[in-house]
Amino acid sequence: EDSTRSRAGVILVEAPCEIACSASAAPSSGDIPLAVLFEATASAPYCIAEPAYAWDVDGDGETDSTEPIFTRTFSTPGVYPWTLTVAADGLTCTRTGTVKACGIICSATASPSIGKAPLAVSFQGSASSTLGCQRTNVSYLWDFGDGSQPSTAQNPSHTYSEPGTYSWAFTASEGGYSCQRRGTIAVQGSIAGVPL
User: Helix/strand/coil (H, E, C) string of 113-176?
Assistant: First the structure.
């Protein structure tokens, strides 16, 4: 008698988890305030978990959105690197790009800001446009706040002859962009030779 036995069965071989993604930012450049639409798609066949999205759209290392599609408005000039990371079952897919928000950044100082008349004040201004956005040379305008002729020099000097508090304004302009800074100067006087 033949004692041979046979058995049959099924072996299920599962495909490994895979993840793929794509991302875009439009427009990728423009004048501030710049509204940018970020869009991402992802697929994770054979994965247990659904794809999870994480956007960092200003390069600070923090997650700005977990939505696949959203809008972000850039109000400050600069070049912002963005990163999309999609994760599922321990796997990740990453896409990167940049957004160029065009505009001009400026700063201005006045020294000294307080003193006795006549008070000679040195003004210093600086400005720069977003890298790659510059259209023309930067122009400067200083209003000293005392009714005198404004100055177009970058770093002028001005003397206040009369006591009082004066509000100055600095404006930098370049190719349709402008930036303004303000401050005050306190000029002290004297009565009968006695300082106030």
Answer: CEEECCEEEEEEEEEEECCCCCCCCCEEEEECCCCCCCECCCCCEEEECCCEEEEEEEEEEECC
Under 8 Å between Cβ of 15 and 45: yes
Its pTM stands at: 0.74
* Bond prior to 118 in cis (omega within 30° of 0): yes
What is the Cα–Cα distance from 175 to 51, expressed in whole angstroms? Answer: 44
**pLDDT tens track of the chain, all 196 residues?**
556 666 766 665 567 899 999 999 999 999 999 999 999 999 999 999 999 999 999 999 999 999 999 999 999 999 999 999 999 999 999 999 999 999 999 999 999 999 999 999 999 999 988 877 877 789 999 999 999 999 999 999 999 999 999 999 999 998 888 999 999 999 998 654 545 4
Instruction: Enumerate the H helices of 65-196 as residue ranges.
Output: none
Nearest CA-CA partner of 68 in 81, 50, 80: 50
